[in-house]
Amino acid sequence: RRPRTAPSPVVGPCKGTFPRWYYDQNAGECKHFLYGGCQGNHNNFLQESDCVSECIQKSEDSLLVLFFFLTLIV
């Protein structure tokens, strides 16, 4: 699972142009960028669906679990 504060994607110093996806925490969505091919970080996904399932869906699932437990307490 990705940390709550996802770093900006790192293109890296290499000259490749590999289409990738990253999670933009401010926008709350996955966005496209071109990865150079080396020295990136973990905010780098091959497919948009990978980014969504790792960063957005898990976050939504956590909120649902929290809401469920809060309703049990009240």
From TrEMBL:
Molecular function per GO: serine-type endopeptidase inhibitor activity
SMART domains: KU
Keyword presence, Disulfide bond: yes
Keywords from the UniProt entry: Disulfide bond, Protease inhibitor, Serine protease inhibitor
Listed Gene3D superfamilies: Pancreatic trypsin inhibitor Kunitz domain
Domain named BPTI/Kunitz inhibitor: residues: 12-55
InterPro entries xrefs: Kunitz_BPTI, Kunitz_BPTI_sf, Prtase_inh_Kunz-CS
Xref: Pfam families: Kunitz_BPTI
Protein name: BPTI/Kunitz inhibitor domain-containing protein
